[in-house]
């Protein structure tokens, strides 16, 4: 099989997943966007969290041209990127009980804020406890996960529950257990994961929905512009100044 054919098959698989999410998750995406718009309008704050590769879609909506300036990354040291050495430490930390509570307790997140938690499997202690603890202190929780894992795997949290069980809104990425879209003779393991493509698209769809909802209420969405277009830095400086008390990634 030619390499170009495999590339085409991956694009087809990713497009198919995006179409499923667009068609099947539209009501939940609208609900999530409304939750975020409600928080912005009420003067509350926005946070996104993900561990390992699930941190990539979370980071994609933080300090992003065309994105909401109020979205802050809730960082858990050692879990947010492949710069952790050894890389396996990040996976191990996702299974540590009590870590999520310590992070939330020391964060600026509080009652009325929104926390988006991204976890493909939703089975590890960190995202499950993050959602449980966040809701206990009054945060609204949006979970972005693959619901298939809840029936195809076992939870690693002591409660036996998954991220999806502790959210105000659940967005299902439709990713199959294992996160690999292709397999061929001659390669023993399945390959070509699509979770980052799909989950990043979900996040941007939610942000777009929130911006539109704010505009429909007569409110200017606090959006950032690209610093690589004329006037971008000046625009962003005004946004940062106006909303500085809700923007924590610059402190």
The residue fraction in helices comes out at 40-55%
Query: With helices defined by DSSP (H or I, 4 residues minimum), what is the helix count?
Result: 9
Beginning-to-end CA distance, first to last residue: 51 Å
What is the percentage of strand-forming residues? 5-15%
| H-E string | HHEHEHHEHEHEHH
Which class best fits the helix and strand makeup? Answer: alpha/beta
* Overall 3D form: globular
Briefly say what this structure is.
With 251 residues, the chain is of the alpha/beta class. The protein is built from nine helices and five strands, in the order ααβαβααβαβαβαα.
Would you give an account of this structure?
This protein is an alpha/beta fold and 251 residues long. It has 9 helices and 5 strands. The chain has helices at 3-24, 26-41, 55-59, 88-93, 99-105, 125-136, 149-152, 195-216, 232-242, and strands at 46-50, 71-73, 114-118, 140-145, 169-172. The longest helix is centred in the N-terminal third of the chain and has 22 residues, at 3-24. It starts with a helix and ends in a 9-residue tail after the last helix. The relative contact order is 0.19. Belongs to the UPF0309 family. Residues 36-221 form the SIS domain.
How is the secondary structure organized here?
Elements: H1 3-24, H2 26-41, E1 46-50, H3 55-59, E2 71-73, H4 88-93, H5 99-105, E3 114-118, H6 125-136, E4 140-145, H7 149-152, E5 169-172, H8 195-216, H9 232-242
Helix pairs in contact: 1-8, 2-8, 5-6
InterPro entries: RpiR-like_SIS, SIS_dom, SIS_dom_sf, SIS_GmhA/DiaA_subfam, UPF0309
Protein name: UPF0309 protein AVW11_30920
Family: Belongs to the UPF0309 family.
């Amino acid at each position: 099989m030619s390499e170009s054919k495999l590339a085409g098959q991956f694009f087809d698989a990713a497009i198919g997943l995006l179409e499923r999410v667009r068609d099947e998750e539209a009501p939940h995406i609208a609900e999530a966007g409304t939750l975020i718009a409600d928080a912005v309008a009420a003067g509350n704050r926005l946070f996104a969290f993900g561990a390992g590769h699930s941190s990539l879609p979370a980071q994609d909506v933080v300090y992003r041209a065309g994105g909401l300036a109020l979205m802050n990354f809730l960082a858990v040291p050692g879990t947010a990127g492949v710069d952790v050495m050894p890389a396996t430490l990040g996976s191990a930390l996702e299974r540590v009980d009590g870590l999520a509570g310590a992070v939330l307790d020391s964060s600026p997140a509080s009652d009325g804020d929104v926390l988006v938690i991204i976890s493909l499997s939703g089975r590890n202690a960190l995202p499950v406890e993050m959602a449980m603890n966040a809701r206990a202190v009054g945060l609204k929780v949006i979970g972005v996960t693959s619901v298939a894992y809840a029936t195809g795997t076992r939870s690693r949290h002591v409660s036996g529950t998954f991220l999806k069980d502790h959210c105000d809104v659940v967005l299902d990425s439709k990713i199959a257990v294992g996160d690999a879209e292709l397999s061929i003779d001659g390669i023993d393991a399945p390959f070509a994961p699509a979770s980052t493509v799909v989950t990043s698209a979900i996040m941007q769809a939610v942000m777009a929905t929130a911006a539109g909802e704010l505009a429909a209420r007569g409110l200017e969405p606090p959006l950032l512009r690209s610093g690589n277009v004329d006037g971008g830095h000046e625009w962003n400086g005004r946004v940062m100044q106006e909303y500085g008390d809700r923007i924590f990634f610059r402190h």
